[in-house]
Amino acid sequence: MATISAAMVKELRDTTGAGMMDCKQALTENGGDMQASIDWLRKKGLSKAAKKAGRVAAEGLIGAMTSGTKGVVVEVNSETDFVARNDQFQGLVKMIAQVALHAGSDVEKIKATKVGSATVEAAISDAIATIGENMSLRRAAGLEVSKGVVASYVHNAVIDGAGKMGVIVALESAGKADELAALGRQIAMHVAAANPQALDASGLDPEVVKREKDVLSDKYRQQGKPENVIEKIVESGLKTYYKEVCLLEQAFIHDTGKSVAQAVKEAEGKVGSPVKITGFVRYALGEGIEKAESDFAAEVAAASGQKA
């Protein structure tokens, strides 16, 4: 049986970040072979990671990255906000965004893409094993234009290109790239603040529009308004609704005296060419995920192995 020295245990611990007793056991099980011990610990870590996969991962970071005429936004979730401030996790998010920029927005394709000798999915699993929390690539989206720019904005950024909210906006134009990029960033900031539901009325869910019409119609019908009057009121009400939820019709946050469409039209002089917004994506961290409610005292007790 190979002699396991304290120096060997320290080396393995420094390499893997695993606990001292785990490192000693790994070396003992593998006859002091360092690489085999690393693999043994990774397998053990992955086994633990699989158990963690059932936990709710509703924290994390949104990553946004652009390169000229294309851009992507990704959401990578963790269980706690503490992990979102971890350097390794932040690096993982940036790496995934970089991969998505070239591989596209299909989550399974991103996870299967190799970075060096390992896939993105393997990198996520390694991070789970090392950091000790469940993590997942939840979603990704991309935009691209044949000519123009895709601009981005990250709100509450913890590092460059990653934070609690990310927006990308696609501007199609043959104009000056620097002016387009500046305009695009302003519009991306607007999208972050105003949360439009669609580019224009044609992009809204017909069921949502119908529901809005029905609500307005019923409201004024109950007030005894004649049908011909109700029709005009509903038409006016829908115009107001569109100004609230359609990007091009919203009041521009940088100059509320004009709509986004008007601001874009005015910017064409600086850009030197017509500009068209072809799309936008806004990701807010954890939207749509039901976070597990927990008792803080119970959490502390569980962490210390005691009963609350």
So how many helices? 12
What would you call the structural class? Answer: alpha+beta
The biggest sheet amounts to: 4 strands, antiparallel
User: What order do the strands of the largest sheet run in, or round the barrel if closed?
Assistant: 5-2-1-7
Radius of gyration: 26 Å
Give the overall form: elongated
Name of the CATH first level of the largest domain: Alpha Beta
Write a compact overview of the structure shown:
The protein has 308 residues and is an alpha+beta fold. It has twelve helices and eleven strands.
Notes on the protein architecture:
The protein has 308 residues and is of the alpha+beta class. It has 3 domains: 6-52, Ubiquitin-associated (UBA) domain (Helicase, Ruva Protein, domain 3, Orthogonal Bundle), CATH 1.10.8.10; 59-201 and 246-284, Elongation factor Ts, dimerisation domain (Tetrahydropterin Synthase, Chain A); 205-245. It is 50% helix and 21% strand. It has 12 helices and 11 strands. The protein has helices spanning 6-16, 20-29, 34-52, 81-84, 87-103, 107-112, 120-131, 177-194, 206-222, 227-245, 260-271, 296-303, and strands at 59-67, 70-78, 114-115, 118-119, 135-144, 148-155, 162-163, 165-172, 251-252, 255-259, 276-284. It has a 4-stranded antiparallel beta sheet. A 3-stranded antiparallel beta sheet has the order 6-8-11, with helices on one face. A two-stranded antiparallel sheet has the order 3-4. Strand 3 and strand 4 form a beta hairpin. Helix 1 crosses helix 3, helix 2 (20-29) packs across helix 3 (34-52) and helix 3 (34-52) crosses helix 7. The model is unreliable at 46-54 and 293-308 (pLDDT under 50).
